[in-house]
Amino acid sequence: MTIDLRSDTLTRPTAAMRRAMAEAEVGDDVFGDDPTVNALQERVAALFGKEDALFTPTGSMANVLAVASLVGPGQEVLCEASAHIARAELGAHGAVTGLTMRTWRHPRGQVDLEAIGEMYAPDMGPFFVRTTAVSVENTHNFAGGTVLPLAGLQALRGWADSVGVGVHLDGARLWNAHVATGVPLAAYGACADVLSVCLSKGLGAPVGSLVVGSADAMAQARVRRKRLGGGMRQVGILAAAGLHALDHHVERLADDHAHARLLAEACGVDPATVETNIVVVPRDDAPAFVAAAREAGVLVSQVGPHVVRLVTHLDVSRSDAETAAAALARL
Ligand SMILES: Cc1ncc(COP(=O)(O)O)c(C=O)c1O
C-alpha cells in the first residue's frame, strides 16, 4: 500500500461527506438561489466576524478576488517571498488584476513589520507604484506549515491602519493555525480586511474555497468571479461537502499535526519546529530521496532544489504515519 504525503489536497470525500453532498438542497447560485451555498457563506462569514463570504472553486481564485478587492491595476501588494500568491499562482494577480508585488524574505514565512515599513510606498502621484495592501499567509505553506502568531498579525493590523493600507490573509490552512494555537477564528478575522480560506486542504472537501470580508468587497468579488468564469450553478452539492467538513473535520486536524511531528522525527527534523501538518526536510539529494521514498511505498514531493515536503491529512491514519515514519527513517 502506498502512503501519500504529497499534499493535503489529495483526500477523497468520506462516505458521510458524499451522503451530505447527495442530499444537498440546491438552486442556481449565479442567481443567489442555492440555499446550501448561502448557508455555507453565512456560516463562514460569521466564523470570522465578517459581513459576507463568497464561495469559489479554488483557493487561487479566492486569493485573486481577495487581493483585487484591496489592490487595483498599477498598485502593489507586499508579501513574503515564498507566499503562495507570489510563487504558486502563476502570475494570476499580475495577469488578471494588473497589480505588482514586492516581497520581503523570512525563512519561516513570518510578518516582518520592519521590512514592510521600509518597503511601503505611499501615494506620490503619477510617478511611483503605490502600496495598497499587505498579504500574509497563515499557516505558511512553503515555510513548512508555520503559524503566524496573533500578536504579529495584530501589530500588522495596527500599522496598516496607521498608513491606510489593507490586509489580506491567505488562510488556506487557517483552520490548522486555529487548532494548533487555540486562537479563535474571529481573532484572525479581525486582523484582516479580507481573507481567503480553503475547504479542500486539511478539511478534506473535494473542492471549494471562500473569500470573506465586507458586504461591499464581496459584492465586487461576485462580479469579478463571474468575469473569470467562476459563476457556478447548482453548486450546493459542493458547499454541502464544506459544511460537513466544518462540522466534522476541524478538531481532528490536531491528529494531522501529531502525525507530522512523528514524521519529522523520522526524517531528522526537530519535531518542535513542526507547528502543523507540513514538514519541510532539507535534502541535498532531494530527487533521489523522493525516488527512494516512492520505492519504499511513501509519496513525498520536492518543493525546492534541496527541499522535500511531507504533508499529513485526513487519509493518513496513525498507523499509516507510523509505517511511513519507519520507512523514511530507513532512508
Ligand atoms: C497557502 C495556499 N494558498 C492558496 C492555495 C491555492 O489553493 P488551490 O489549489 O485550491 O487553488 C494553496 C494551495 O495549496 C495554498 O497552499
Observed structural traits:
331 residues, alpha/beta, three-stranded antiparallel β-sheet, 14 helices, 18% strand, globular, binds pyridoxal-5'-phosphate
Outline of the structure:
The chain has 331 residues and is an alpha/beta fold.
Overview of the structural elements:
This protein has helices at residues 15-22, 35-47, 59-68, 84-87, 92-97, 113-119, 150-163, 174-181, 185-190, 215-227, 236-248, 253-266, 286-295, 318-330; strands at 3-4, 52-56, 75-80, 100-104, 130-137, 166-171, 194-198, 209-213, 278-282, 298-299, 301-304, 307-311. With 331 residues, the chain is of the alpha/beta class. The chain has a seven-stranded mixed β-sheet with strand order 2-8-7-6-5-3-4, with helices on both faces. Helix 2 packs parallel to helix 11 (236-248) and helix 3 crosses helix 10. Pyridoxal-5'-phosphate (PLP) binds at residues 58-60, 63, 84, 137, 141, 170, 172, 198, 200, 209.
Secondary-structure blueprint:
Layout: E1 3-4, H1 15-22, H2 35-47, E2 52-56, H3 59-68, E3 75-80, H4 84-87, H5 92-97, E4 100-104, H6 113-119, E5 130-137, H7 150-163, E6 166-171, H8 174-181, H9 185-190, E7 194-198, E8 209-213, H10 215-227, H11 236-248, H12 253-266, E9 278-282, H13 286-295, E10 298-299, E11 301-304, E12 307-311, H14 318-330
Parallel strand pairs: 1-10, 3-4, 3-5, 5-6, 6-7
Antiparallel strand pairs: 2-8, 7-8, 9-12, 11-12
Helix pairs in contact: 1-11, 2-11, 3-10, 12-14
The chain binds pyridoxal-5'-phosphate (PLP).
Task: Describe the main β-sheet briefly.
Answer: 7 strands, mixed
Which ligands does the model contain, each kind named once? Answer: pyridoxal-5'-phosphate
Order of helices and strands: EHHEHEHHEHEHEHHEEHHHEHEEEH
Strand % is: 15-25%
The 3D shape can be described as: globular
The Cα radius of gyration reads 20 Å
Estimate the mean pLDDT confidence.
98
Poorly predicted segments: none
Termini gap: 18 Å
Identify the strand order in the major beta sheet.
Answer: 2-8-7-6-5-3-4
- Helical segment tally? 14
